[in-house]
Amino acid sequence: MVRLYVVLAFVVVAFDVFALVDLMLIDRRRIRALNRPLWFAIVVILPVIGPILWFLLGRAGRGGVDERRTMAPDDDPAFLRNLRRDEEQDERIRRLEQELAALDDDPPAKD
After folding, report:
1. Taking the alpha carbons of 56, 58, 59, 65 in that order, is the dihedral positive or negative?
2. pLDDT tens, position by position, 56-69
3. I need a surface site. Which of 18, 46, 52, 86 has the fewest CB within 10 A?
4. DSSP states of 43-102 as a string?
5. By CB neighbour count within 10 A (0-12 exposed, 13-18 middle, 19+ buried), where does 55 fall?
6. Contact (CB, 8 A) for 23 and 55
7. Domain boundaries in the chain?
8. Cα–Cα–Cα angle for 28, 32, 33, nearest 5°?
9. Using an 8 Å Cβ cutoff, are 33 and 58 in contact?
């Protein structure tokens, strides 16, 4: 019977630690109902019920509110704008290098 209590205590502590780590690392936008410090207090004060409440009520799923949609680079206007700017800069550098090369090829002017 003592072994059962030891194993049960270990499971409860592991579940609490898992819930606390999850609470600390989760994105702020995925926390529902209360703010982070209140959930932290609930999980610490209520060792078994707190983590259960956290996972059932406090944590939004992956498709939760404010979930950001990832965008492919070729669909992102900012990425395309930066890409165009980089191409323009590369072209300008090529022109300047050609002008410098042309200046180096010219013989020196005689007075």
Report:
1. positive
2. 998 887 655 445 56
3. 86
4. HHHSTTHHHHHIIIIIB--TT-TTPPPP--GGG-HHHHHHHHHHHHHHHHHHHHHHHHHH
5. middle
6. no
7. 1-64, 71-106
8. 130
9. yes
